[in-house]
Amino acid sequence: MKIFEFISGILKPVSEIIDNVHTSEEERLKIKESLFSLQTKMTMQVMNYESKLLESKTKIITAEANGQSWMQRNWRPITMLTFLVLVVLDTMGYTEFRLSGEAWTLLQLGLGGYVVGRSAEKIIPQVAQVMKKD
Question: In 3D, which of 114, 124, 36 has the Cα closest to residue 81?
Fold first, then answer.
């Protein structure tokens, strides 16, 4: 994930400065330990945020899947099937105009969101249990 690279990228110059500071090895190691602890805390906060975000998305998809209305329960699968038909027709040359780049991007986002949402629905409870144990 790019956020972890971002956190490491922020702290790497500080770590390099610590290496160049003229202090004792013991002081240098203490500072590096503190820096590593900060990086760990920041990473845990990001993971906690991502976990809550996935949990929220999962709740939305679960609420839709368990909704009272037939349309509420089935709009995502209908949308994905519609895109599938469009892709097949476009691939076979049956559409008057080729699908635009935006349509392909929308299809990728839709499929990615649907697949990730359904996967998260099954994975989040297990991840939450593991994080609570620590």
Answer: 114
What count of other Cβ atoms lies within 10 Å of the Cβ of residue 31? Answer: 17
pLDDT level of residue 127 (50, 70, 90 thresholds):
low
The domain ranges of the chain are 2-133
CA–CA distance, 63 with 72 (Å, rounded to integer): 9
CA distance 100 to 125: 38
The pLDDT assigned to 116 comes to 62
Residue 100, phi then psi, degrees to nearest 5: -75, 165
pTM of the model: 0.44
User: What mean pLDDT comes out for the span 112-133?
Assistant: 65
Q: How far apart are CA 32 and CA 91, in angstroms?
A: 56
Alpha helices in 66-100 (DSSP H): 70-91
How far apart CA 48 and CA 128 sit, in angstroms, is 9
* CA atoms in the 13 A half-sphere facing the CB of 86: 14
Residue 93 zone, left/alpha/beta (φ > 0; ψ -120 to 50; rest): left
Residue in the block written with tokens 């359904």: 118
